[in-house]
Structures are given as C-alpha cells and as structure tokens.
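Structure first, sequence second, as always.
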C-alpha cells in the first residue's frame, strides 16, 4: 500500500519556514528532507521504500526497513506516527483531572451579581418549620410573618419581612410548604423529607431571591396529579411546575444533599433563574430535571464544588430565555430529551440563549431521537473543563448550535450511535449554523451511524490550534429517495492555521468549498471515496491524505 504526503512549497514570505520530514534509513539513522524543494513523498509499505519527488523532477528513494509509518517530525530522534487507526473512548481519568473556575464573591452592591451571594445576606429572624406525619409546626411570633396550616401537614407562609431565614426539617409523606414573600429570604433544608401527593413539595410564590442552603440529607417528592392551583393576583392560576418550584431566583449553597423526585412535573423549576454554588443534588424527573425561564449557572465556592446528577424523561437542563453557564463541579445527566438546552423560541431579538463551559466535568447521555448533548439557539463556547457525551438516538448530536461554536480550551469526547431519524435528520458530532472557531483544546468524536457527520458547519471553519479527531466510518445511508453521505468534516471555507486534525470517514473525509492549510497537520483518510472533495491550497504545514484503496 502506498501513502502520499502532500508537501507543497512554502510561500516565500517573511517568517515562512519549510517543513522537515525525517526518514529512517536502513542503517537506523535519520535523514532530513526539506519539503521546500519536495513535490511529493510516497511511502510504499510493501517495499518499505520512501520515494521523494523533488520540484526539479528528480526522485530519490530511501530504504526504511526499521519503520512501518511516515510522518512529519520536529527532530531527528522522534518519529510521529502516520496511521489511519484511531480509537476514541471516554477516559475515566477525565473525571478527576479537570479545570475549574473558583467564584469571587461580589462585594459591590451595585453589581447585579451581588444578590446571588448569601454571604451578602444576614438573617435577623430565624423561623423553624418542623414536619411530622401527624402535623407541621411553625414558631413564628411576629406580625409580618404569618402562617396557615391546612389538613394538619400543609403550611402556607405569608411574609413581608426582610432578612428572614426558615429552618425546614422533619419528615412527612403528605405535606407541603408554600411561601409568599415580598422580600428575599433563606430556606435552610436540614434533614427534611417531604412528599406532597397532590402538588409541589415546596412552592415558592415569590419573585424574590431564595437562598436554598443544604445541610444533612433532604428528600422532596411531588404527586403524579396536581390539585387545581388557586388564582394569582392577575386572575390566572398560580404556577406549580415541579417538585421544588419558585417564581424567583433559586440559589443553592451549603454542603448537604438534596434528592428530588418528580412524578408529575419538573424536578427543580424557577420562573427566573437557578444557580448552584455548592451541595450535592440529585434529580429524577418525569419532565425536565431543571427548568428555568432564565439562566442556569453552576460554579463553585472557594471551599466546595457542587455535584449534580439528573435523570429526566424530558430535558436534563432547560433554559427558555437565558444562558447555560458551567464553571465548576461535576454534572451528570441521563435524559430522553436534550441533555443541556438553552433555546429561545420567541421573537424578541434582544433575547439570546447561549451555552458557556468554563470548567468542571460534564458527563451526559441522551436517548431519544433528534436529541443533543448541547442544544442552543445562540452560541456555544468552551474554554475549560472536560465533557463526555453519548448521543444514542437517530438524528442526535453532541453540539447542535443555531449560532457559532468557539473552542478555546477544554476537552470534548463524544460517541454518537444513531443514524438518520425518520425525517432524515442526520446524526453527528457538531452541527453549527454559524462560524466554527477552534483556538485550542482537545476534541474527539466518533460517529458510528450511517450517514452521520463528525462536523457539519454552515459557516466558515477556522482551526488555529488544538487536537481534533473525527471518525465517521460507517457506510453512506442509501435509500430509494436520498443518499446521505458519511463524512468527517462538511463545511464551506475551511482554514487550518495550526494544530492537528485527524479526519477519517467512509465518504470524503473533508468535503467543502475550499480548504487552506497555512500550518499544522491535517490527516484525511477515506475508506470508500477520495479523502478530499474540496479545492485545497497548502501554503505550509502538512496535508496527509489517503484515498480508498
């Protein structure tokens, strides 16, 4: 078998340098070949010969009895491997070796984020709510915090007082807590076990910030069928969308554990936003695990990282109008819908829904057709952390972005098992309707289904650095009415300025309008077609291709 390395002459511009290939001779020494005067290099594996065709028309042959591959090198003593075999696995070491962003507590009251920190909130009144199977008690003795108990175990708080903290504890299999408040407040869940068979276990009918502090182990559960909600002041029924529901912001902190089960709605839901700073939270939900009208943010304090696990019949995390921001901690999701969804479906052009990954460890799995690990109607960006994604359904993807995708660092490993969905949506690694920019990081995507795409970019694609491995080696998906090609990269204008790209597919490894290699190394292999289906311009770097034999 012969393999060809394209080694086009480097442009004679300032700073341009010829690439060097070190060939191992039969006497076990290395000889440098200057590719500035080389037109083509061919490696014959059977004859163990390297043939170097120069720009002057001459050809030199080198015996290579001691090597079975050929590739560019950066010195005479270390040979890089030119091989079309790669394996992509979810490395368990990624769960213990990842970057995190440690939050800074905002001290300026004029900054919007200042209100997210319980450190800036001091309680002047502590009220204890204690649940038992036989009844619930409350020790409030002030006029601006009143309460009503129904059927012995369902308590409703009405408060106009500021700086109130509620310690909620005990156990009850038929109880609930509802809070109305005109001021922000704190809930301290302390070994609380609470089930409401006819609605939310905790229902916060306040648009103010709620600091939800965890200590000990607490468990919440709703019912399969919710009772009719009373009307809000505007005449519409009150929202009661999940086991733990709040009209306002939910800010989680503390070092305790919270287990939430939803049999009738979402697990944890806010009509504003949710922020998790610390704590161990597990959600099992009939609908979405976390559902927010605005953003979802997960970070860490100086002392502790959160651990969040979600199993959802719907979406794992769903943001209707805001961003998903992951800065630290461990996040595990097993969802039938989208794993992490930031998607605005309205018409207000001032609203965007983006996804930003700055750190942490995310392991996510989607099981249904046309579901994605990350789906965003805005942009997707990652600069740190590790991501493991498994997309199981037909037409599913690792990243599905209506906007652009920017990779500045971090690590993404994805396994895509599905093929075409019933409406012919293709499965794939990255689907990008905007521009794709890779400045650094490690990307490894294995698309196992027929007709799938490693990267499918409708905008421009630029790679400045990083390590990118894309496998899409199943056969094309051929039916009577269409033929969907299995390709590693499909794009328009593709520019490689550095880094390493390894693309292997059944059909064309790289298919696009044009590819320009200014630096870096590009490996392109096809097992059923030509490696490239594009206009290729190589100004420097390496373009290593192998067509189907």
């Amino acid at each position: 078998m012969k393999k060809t390395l394209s080694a086009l002459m480097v442009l004679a511009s300032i700073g341009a340098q010829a690439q060097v290939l070190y060939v191992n001779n039969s006497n076990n020494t290395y000889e440098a070949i200057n590719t500035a005067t080389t037109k083509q290099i061919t490696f014959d594996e059977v004859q163990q010969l390297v043939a170097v065709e120069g720009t002057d028309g001459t050809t030199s042959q080198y015996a290579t009895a001691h090597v079975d591959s050929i590739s560019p090198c950066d010195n005479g003593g270390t040979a890089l491997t030119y091989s079309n075999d790669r394996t992509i696995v979810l490395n368990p070491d990624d769960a213990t070796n990842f970057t995190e962003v440690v939050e800074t507590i905002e001290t300026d009251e004029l900054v919007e984020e200042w209100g997210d920190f319980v450190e800036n909130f001091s309680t002047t009144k502590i009220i204890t709510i204690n649940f038992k199977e036989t009844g619930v008690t409350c020790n409030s003795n002030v006029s601006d915090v009143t309460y009503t108990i129904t059927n012995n175990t369902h308590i409703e708080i009405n408060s106009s007082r500021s700086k109130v903290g509620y310690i909620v504890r005990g156990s009850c299999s038929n109880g609930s807590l509802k809070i109305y408040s005109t001021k922000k407040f704190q809930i301290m869940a302390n070994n609380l076990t609470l089930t409401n068979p006819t609605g939310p276990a905790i229902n916060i009918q306040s648009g103010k910030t709620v600091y939800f502090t965890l200590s000990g182990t607490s468990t919440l559960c709703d019912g399969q069928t919710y009772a009719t909600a009373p009307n809000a002041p505007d005449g519409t029924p009150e929202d009661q969308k999940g086991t733990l529901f709040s009209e306002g912001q939910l800010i989680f902190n503390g070092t305790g554990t919270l287990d939430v089960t939803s049999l009738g709605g979402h697990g944890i839901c806010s009509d504003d936003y949710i922020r998790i700073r610390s704590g161990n939270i597990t959600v099992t939900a009939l609908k979405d695990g976390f559902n927010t009208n605005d953003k979802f943010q997960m970070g860490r304090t100086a002392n502790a990282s959160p651990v969040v696990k979600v199993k959802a019949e719907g979406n794992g995390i769903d943001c209707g109008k805001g961003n998903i921001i992951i800065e630290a901690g461990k996040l595990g999701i097993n969802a039938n819908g989208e794993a992490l969804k930031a998607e605005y479906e309205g018409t207000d052009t001032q609203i965007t829904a983006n996804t930003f990954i700055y750190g942490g460890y995310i392991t996510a799995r989607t099981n249904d057709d046309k579901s994605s690990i990350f789906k965003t109607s805005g942009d997707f960006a990652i600069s740190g952390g590790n991501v493991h994604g498994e997309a199981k359904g037909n037409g599913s993807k690792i990243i599905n972005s209506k906007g652009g995708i920017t990779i500045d660092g971090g690590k993404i490993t994805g396994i895509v098992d599905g093929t075409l969905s019933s409406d012919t949506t293709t499965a794939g690694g990255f689907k990008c309707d905007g521009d794709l920019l890779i400045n650094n990081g490690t990307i490894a995507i294995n698309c196992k289904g027929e007709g799938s795409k490693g990267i499918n970019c409708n905008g421009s694609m630029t790679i400045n650095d990083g390590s990118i491995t894309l496998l899409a080696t199943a056969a094309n998906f051929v039916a009577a009415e269409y033929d969907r090609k299995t390709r590693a990269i499909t794009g328009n204008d593709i520019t490689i300025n550095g880094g390493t790209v390894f693309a292997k597919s059944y059909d064309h490894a790289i298919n696009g309008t044009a590819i320009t290699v200014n630096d870096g190394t590009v490996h392109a292999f096809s097992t059923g077609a030509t490696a490239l289906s594009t206009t290729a311009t190589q100004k420097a770097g390496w373009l290593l291709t192998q067509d189907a034999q």
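Margin note: The chain is about 0% helix and 50% strand.
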